[in-house]
Amino acid sequence: VDYTTIFLVQQREHPVFFFEIKAAGHIHRTSSRAAADKEMRERVDDLRDDVKIPILYGVSAIGTKLCFYKCTKDTGQLEPELIPGHTKIVVDTAPRDHWEFDMLTDEGEQKLREVIGDVKRMCIQMGP
Fold first, then answer.
1. Cα 122 → chain centroid
2. Of all helices (H) and strands (E), which one includes residue 122?
């Protein structure tokens, strides 16, 4: 069974953070990582018009591996940068190293806490 679990955090019905989770085995398949990346980018596109804070963060979790997405509202800039496919060459559009953080390590925990802290600060500035 191939499915994605989505956790959307909102303040006053405005998206402030989202988390998409896939099973750990997907990290080994180029097509599964590409699908996860595409889903994240589509989710940003779907949510963007309703965002009221300066940055919308999303996290793609494949097992314990994390890839952090950051969309700046004013410019529409989205990180990580899109790696375009090619019509004649096989291209890994979502390399495994995009999921560079492991939530079970100190570094992964610190990065996740940093992002959540930034989201909380923006929500406080937005007000109740």
1. 17
2. helix 106-126
